[in-house]
Amino acid sequence: MAAETEIHARAVADNLVNQGYAIARMESSEWELRKTRRRGDLVVTITITRPTAAPPTGPPPAWGPPTGPPAV
Predict the structure, then answer these.
(1) Most distant CA pair in the chain: distance in Å?
(2) Most exposed residue of 35, 37, 52, 67, measured as fewest CB within 10 angstroms of its CB?
(3) Coil, strand, or helix at residue 49?
(4) 2 neighbors 47 (Cβ within 8 angstroms)
(5) Domain limits of the chain?
(6) How far apart are CA 62 and CA 43, in angstroms?
(7) What is the pLDDT of residues 28-50, one digit of tens each?
(8) Are 51 and 28 in contact (CB under 8 A)?
């Protein structure tokens, strides 16, 4: 599963922990959760695409402060 930020990954991990998963490994950009069952373990890997929550790179949004002559 892919999470865009660490906050999103934490929310997903919290939901999985409530379902019986345990955190097996946590790195800055990838978390692994595991649930042990009789028929074999279930493993979920959460990959964080922007672990530092840095703003996306690219051009700025088209909206911004109004432009034009100053108000009088």
Answers:
(1) 76
(2) 67
(3) coil
(4) yes
(5) 2-48
(6) 41
(7) 888 899 999 888 888 998 888 87
(8) yes
